[in-house]
Amino acid sequence: MRLIDANALHKEISEWPESVMYKDWVQAAIANAQSITPPPNAPLTLDELREMDGDPVWAVRVDGEFRPFWMLVDVEDESASNRLYVAMFEDYGTGWLAYRRRLEEAGKEDTPE
After folding, report:
1. 24-62: per-residue pLDDT in tens?
2. Burial letters for 78-90: b for 16+ Cβ neighbours within 10 Å, e otherwise?
3. Chain centroid to CA 44: how far?
4. Mean of the per-residue pLDDT values for the chain?
5. Phi, psi of 11 (to 5 degrees)
6. Is it the case that residue 107 has pLDDT exceeding 50?
């Protein structure tokens, strides 16, 4: 499931020609739809990170040495040749942190201290 901007969708539908069938029904359905709040984007625990094998995570160096970047978690392959795509677990939490989503500039409360 993906989150959408219901206000933008409602505006777009309101610009449909009046002759479009079900226009009012679609707008009512959007207006009455349940809101979805994304889960907090707190740093993943080591256990959560290991469960994301094969999934992308947003990696942030605690010391700010590198710009944050997307990486794929690979709990099996820790070879040097695959270093850019491998989660190095030995310094997780002290050297770097991983997040489910990219950190938002406005969401500085999610950034490491």
Report:
1. 888 887 888 777 777 789 999 988 988 888 889 999 999
2. eeeeeeeebbeee
3. 12
4. 77
5. -65, -45
6. no
* Spans of all domains in the chain: 1-37, 46-110
10 Å Cβ neighbour count for 19? 6
Return d(Cα 5, Cα 52) in angstroms, integer. Answer: 27
With 0-12 CB in 10 A as exposed, 13-18 as middle and 19+ as buried, what is 111?
Answer: middle
What does residue 80 show for φ and ψ, rounded to 5 degrees? -65, -30
Residues 103 and 84: their CA atoms lie apart, in Å, by 20
| Contacts of range 24-32, beta carbons closer than 8 Å, 24 or more positions apart | 30/6, 31/6
Q: Which of 83, 1, 113, 93 is nearest to 45 (CA)?
A: 93
Cβ neighbours of 97 (radius 10 Å): 22
Amino acid identity for residue 96 in this structure: W
